[in-house]
Fold these 2 entries.
Entry 1:
Amino acid sequence: MKNIEIKKRHAEKMNSKEIKQKISKACSGQKNGFYGKTHTKEAINKIIEKNKKYRENLTEDEKQKISNKLKEAQIRIKNKNPDEYRKNKIKAAIVSSKSQYRYKINNIEKKVMDYLIAKGVDVKYSIIMGCYQYDFKVKEEKILIECNGIYWHGHPDYYNINGSNGKRKLNDIQIKKQQKDKDKKEFAVHRGFEIITI
């Protein structure tokens, strides 16, 4: 494999449709070692934690390199077969759309939506980006809007970490929510979005 020509021929062979179909057939259904199995909650949490630590330790240059590689890969796939690329994008959009039905609009979000519409702001409810859900996205703009309840998100006017200065002490759920809010914001801002929190 040190020979560049052999390496090139090997890559072409492994990336051929014929080989991919053979591998897929060999690993499909009950032949797949993971057939009928699921990850335990503990395993899922370990994976999430490991990925989170990995992302946190990346430098801005490393993040940019990963982003550029992903963009380049998408461009290569698109140029290779534009029709298939478009079909796959549509499939992904449908899956994303279906996943959003889990979220039902609450009273606060309904009021915010009514207000925005009355002001002529065109918004879409419940946007999924990566592994995060955001309450609203302003259409045609890179603006996200989050509606955070005082209790669940531990508003700093009423709660703090140790319950000092006449405020209530944050509980474990509120602390986790605040960390998730921070992660969500970083994820979106890193992708060029502005977040407005109500």
Note: Helices lie at 4-14, 17-26, 41-56, 60-80, 82-99, 107-118, 172-190.
Entry 2:
Amino acid sequence: MDKRSSIKEQINKNQIMRLKYLFLYALTTVLISGCSNKIFKKNEIEIEFIYRSSLVKSSIKLKNDGTFCYRHNAESSETITKGYWILKDNNEIILNSYNDYLTDTIIVKELDKVKSDTATLRVYDFYYNKPTDYATLKFNDSDSILQLDDNGEIKFKKPKDFKLLNISTFRKSYTYQIKDTNCTTFDINLYEKNEYEYFKNKKLQIKNKKIYRNNTLIYKKE
């Protein structure tokens, strides 16, 4: 194959790829606009649905870029969350919060997988951005309780039946099932904060410019 044929073939490939991208872009635009038109008016960037009572005000703001902001005010307290939303079957909205709004949750990393009778547990408070010293640790279902030190750490001897970690705070108790008993370090990110509400595949019903949450709370479009 001469150089001219090679260049011509490359140009044809580029044209085909360009057409593919244009087709995918057009298809995506049609799908998004088809969904958005059920909720948004033309050129509308965001809409807000509000629930009000004598003691509570709650709102869900949907943006045309697929993100949302939820706020709930009750007396002097406020909870918020942000994330992304999708429309399903034109009558259901599904909300998923960003991980920055996790609450009452722990995420555990198992590190240093070597055979040893001792291990180290480290707990880090994500929202206060520092190690925590107010958590306690239990093994399996035993009655032995261990307290973290000022650096949020504790070294312990592994029990014979090393399967579960039970971590308790002032707010909640968490149970973690160990994946690899050879791990000697457990790094834990702790997510606890009253100001946040976390949505994971939260389904809301939409009908006649209203959103129904748990089939009771009704958010009206404003």
Note: The CA atoms of residues 205 and 215 lie 8 Å apart.
